[in-house]
């Protein structure tokens, strides 16, 4: 975040204020995709959760 904000001439706080909603959506999607991949891997190996 620091490098991106420096390149854009902004502060990290400004980036979070402008793009925070997008970052949160991406975080939620990433967690969901990772969870699904773990379930698929467990199913393939016969592991139980």
Going by helix content, strand content and strand pairing, the class is mainly alpha
Please give the share of residues in helix.
Answer: over 70%
Q: What's the alpha carbon Rg, rounded to whole Å?
A: 17 Å
End-to-end CA span: 35 Å
Low-confidence stretches: none
What descriptive keywords fit this protein?
49 residues; mainly alpha
Structure description:
This protein has a domain at 2-33. Helices cover 84% and strands 0% of the residues. The protein contains two helices and no strands. It has 49 residues and is mainly α. The longest helix is centred in the middle third of the chain and has 34 residues, at 12-45. The chain has helices at 2-8, 12-45.
């Amino acid at each position: 975040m620091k490098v991106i904000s420096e390149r854009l001439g902004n502060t990290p706080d400004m980036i979070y204020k402008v793009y925070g909603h997008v970052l949160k959506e991406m975080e939620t999607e990433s967690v969901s995709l990772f969870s699904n991949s773990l379930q698929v891997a467990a199913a393939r190996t016969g592991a139980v959760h």
